[in-house]
Write the structure tokens for this entry.
Amino acid sequence: CGYFDYAAFEEKILPFIDLIYYDIKLASPDLHKKYTGKSNRKILSNLRRLLGQSQVEIHPRIPLIPGITATEQNLTAILDLLNKMGAGEVSLLPYNPLGIDMAACLGRSRPPLPAEFMKPEEEERIFAAFERMVRQRLV
């Protein structure tokens, strides 16, 4: 998720990889803290630094969680952040609730997330809206 000590990552991991899938959930630091328990400042700072180096391909992704990350306001804000950072591409990850039950296996409480997969029409609507947002930024 990008929440790591950059210096340690740069020394111990970065020299041995050539691609990083980097998930950006929420643009707002306050909402990020509300849903994940941590601010996204370190995550965004690490992404900015990674995008600034050229030895490793960075592929940002946005996990779509209905009503949380899959909102027009959040997607627009993330696109703006990625554009300012110079990211060349981004992928949307349709919501997958299969990990929710894993929390109980780890002794944690169930996260307040939807228990159902996104409906195909909802997914199509979000993908189409996102495509429009991207095109607006290219004009």
